[in-house]
Write a structure and sequence with these properties.
The complex is a heterodimer. By secondary structure, chain A is an alpha/beta fold. Helix content of chain A is about 45%, strand content about 15%. Chain A is built from 14 helices and 10 strands. The chains are: A alpha/beta, B mainly alpha.
């Protein structure tokens, strides 16, 4: 059977429609307002170097739970992805379900931060933030939610400070860095990471951007902009597109020593599974984790494949381990309408059950 | 702002009017659709803010690629009823059209393929941007074998060390050139494989009894074919190796260059990168040590407070009640000591675990 049902006049109509949408939509693009980053009100409660700990303001009519929740985001990209727009905000949704939400904003490292190690981030910044929250609420333990690399950091932290953590939630967190479908991992196996860091110092955000675009170059650098014409004439859709665009390319540099250890110990040596990871003077051992664990992953995640997250099962000593899968991608798990209806309420419900 | 908007609207209308004569007189006059869009863009782009211009140029480039595909496809639809032959001809023409332009400009067939996809950031371009501090092309020579032999000759005399450093820089630039060639060669047959994958996809659609009804659907199918081949090729151990080699070669070249810059700066008694890095490392180590000492101090303070509490407690039982509140208030005062400013890592006391 002839697979093409293409008529020249319809093709011409398509091209005419494209031109028209482009012409009409350009005005919206030029007149687009400044893109905000984060929509939920928050206050700064603690600051150290470039790192800031924020507490989000809950809606007035919501009774907050007694155990606060600290969100630890990745160093890669900016944490306002979790609060990107009013109707697609994981943070806003958590607040609406009564969670008392704190978030660590790592800021933008510069050349003076090159010597910062994973130990500095995890046993320094994260530990200080946890202590600040514990003192403010006069409690011994808090809940922690780690996202992507932040989830890896949260696993490291909890294994070393289990006495301070009540419940641990990991979202799209890589645990097994060498699953067969992990493209990023495959690409770094022959890289001399020491030479890279010794040469570059901090790893530029642009370099990471390019790497992530290279995972799907045709769709992310071409098809996406072609399809953008379809939203040009709708100011709200255009604004949402531009917000995502801003977030995608708003990549902080990575502190050199942290990047060195993360790539060598985890991407190359698969530290969670094979051991051998040291933070400061302490060896990492996930078996030290005994609190309840909720492991959330995305089924179409091309950055952290599902198997990479699911590998957490059995690695801790937790007697209450739960998995939650979401039929979406690495970003969709925060910003899609479906995720707001499924994932965030499920997390909140699980936290309440274990409160 | 309102005035700006009115200006923009009028300019846009003018642009559309101005190119009306360039627009295809008939919907089947495919040659001029792309020209019309390009002309419209030329008219309005000077008035567009720079911040938006590059963004819109990406959209225009994709639109051009889409138009080109549709135009070539439509022109072949009349020539044959065999869809497989039509698809082959379409992509051959697209590829050769870009290849001849690219070959004239850059001598590279690979650029031709990348342009066909409107892939505005080819790997070659990206790596050149990453290695931005070095004008690598000036370091290349035509006869690299002869040059490598010359570079292996050991240096002599007073300037021996300097000479060795320069040779290392040259050698690393040659190595980078080889690594880049290997990387580009890896992708050289991707175009053919993508067309083959595209044909398989079209056949699969046909076998299901479905049809491709629009240019957009065809374009999306082409993108998915390219992504599929790309993903397959870049997940191979071979790619991991050429990718790793390329990164390592570029970093080595950059490092050698930086070392030479540092050496020159040092000779001028200027601060060097190496020096600053050493200072940063020592500073961070000192901060860690201070953090650790502060933790120890906090712990000691807690222990001292606990001991004092123990000592005072027997005295509190035998003495007048008036002294008891003073003893009790000593411990809370220690625990609730005001938190020091944010640059210090630990407060005076923590809640008991």
């Amino acid at each position: 059977m002839q697979p093409f049902n293409l008529r020249p006049d319809l093709l011409a109509q398509e091209m005419s429609d494209y031109s028209r949408k482009l012409g009409q939509g350009i005005q919206n693009l030029v007149n687009a307002e400044e893109i905000d980053s984060g929509v939920t009100p928050r206050v700064e409660v603690y600051k150290e170097d470039k790192m800031t700990l924020y507490r989000y303001s809950a809606p007035g009519d919501v009774v907050q739970k007694s155990t606060p929740l600290l969100i630890v985001y990745a160093l890669v990209n900016r944490p306002y992805m979790t609060d990107i727009q009013e109707d697609r905000s994981t943070i806003r949704n958590l607040l609406a379900h009564g969670q008392d939400v704190y978030l660590i904003d790592w800021g933008y490292p510069d050349e003076s931060d090159q010597a910062m190690t994973m130990d500095d981030y995890i046993n320094g910044y994260i530990d200080n933030c946890v202590d600040v929250i514990r003192r403010r609420h006069k409690i011994d333990k808090i809940n922690i939610l780690g996202i992507c690399q932040g989830g890896s950091f949260s696993l490291c932290y909890t294994s070393m400070h289990q006495e301070k953590i009540k419940n641990l939630v990991t979202m799209v967190t890589p645990v097994d860095f060498k699953t067969p479908d992990n493209m990023l991992s495959a690409w770094v196996q022959h890289m001399d990471v020491d030479l890279l860091v010794d040469t570059m110092g901090n790893i530029p955000g642009e370099m990471l951007n390019w790497t992530f675009l290279s995972l799907k170059p045709f769709s992310l650098t071409g098809q996406k902009y072609f399809g953008m014409v379809d939203v040009l004439d709708d100011e709200n859709k255009l604004k949402n597109f531009l917000r995502m665009e801003k977030w995608i390319f708003d990549s902080p540099d990575q502190a050199g020593e942290t990047f060195r250890q993360f790539l060598k110990d985890f991407y190359q040596n698969n530290g969670f599974l094979n051991g051998g990871v040291k933070l400061g003077n302490r060896h990492l051992d996930l078996k030290n984790i005994t609190c309840p664990v909720l492991n959330v992953y995305a089924e179409q995640d091309h950055l952290v494949p599902p198997d990479a997250s699911r590998a957490l099962k059995g690695l801790t000593s937790s007697k209450d381990y739960t998995e939650l899968s979401f039929p979406g991608g690495h970003i969709g798990i925060y910003v899609s309408g479906k995720a707001q209806k499924q994932v965030t309420p499920a997390i909140s419900e699980w936290l309440d059950k274990n409160d | 702002m309102q005035l700006q908007q009115q200006y923009w609207q009028k300019l846009n209308e003018f642009g559309q009017q101005a190119v009306k004569s360039q627009q295809p007189q008939s919907p089947f006059d495919f040659q001029n659709w792309e020209n019309a869009m390009q002309q419209w863009w030329k008219t309005i782009s000077p008035a567009m803010p720079d911040a938006n211009k590059s963004f819109v140029e990406k959209i225009i480039e994709q639109g051009s690629a889409f138009y080109r595909m549709n135009e070539t496809l439509a022109s072949n639809m009349d020539k044959t009823s065999d869809w497989s032959e039509m698809l082959n001809k379409t992509f051959e023409q697209l590829q050769s059209g870009f290849a001849s332009q690219a070959e004239k400009a850059t001598g590279s067939l690979e650029d031709g393929f990348n342009k066909m996809m409107g892939y505005w950031q080819s790997p070659l371009e990206s790596w050149n941007q990453l290695g931005n501090s070095i004008d690598i092309n000036n370091l290349f020579f035509k006869d690299s074998n002869m040059l490598e032999k010359m570079l292996n000759v050991p240096g002599l005399g007073y300037t021996r060390e300097d000479e060795e450093r320069y040779k290392q820089l040259m050698q690393s630039s040659l190595h980078y050139q080889h690594a880049m060639s290997d990387y580009n060669r890896f992708f050289s047959d991707m175009g053919t494989q993508s067309v083959s994958c595209m044909k398989d996809k079209v056949k699969a659609i046909s076998d299901k009894g479905e049809t491709i009804d629009s240019g957009r659907a065809l374009y999306n199918l082409w993108v998915s074919a390219c992504e599929e081949i790309y993903a397959k090729r870049t997940m191979t151990p071979e790619y991991a190796k050429v990718h790793g080699e390329l990164v390592n070669a570029q970093m080595q070249l950059k490092k050698n260059w930086e070392d030479m810059v540092d050496m020159r700066l040092g000779r001028m008694n200027m601060p060097t990168r190496r020096e600053i890095k050493t200072l940063q490392t020592r500073l961070q180590e000192s901060r860690r040590e201070i953090r650790s000492l502060r933790c120890d101090l906090t712990q000691l303070a807690d222990e001292v407070a606990a001991l004092k509490q123990q000592q005072l407690t027997p005295a509190a039982e035998t003495s007048a009640p008036a002294t008891a509140p003073a003893a009790e208030s000593a411990a809370p005062a220690a625990k609730s000591a005001p938190r020091k400013k944010a640059t210090r890592k630990k407060a005076a006391a923590k809640p008991a675990n």
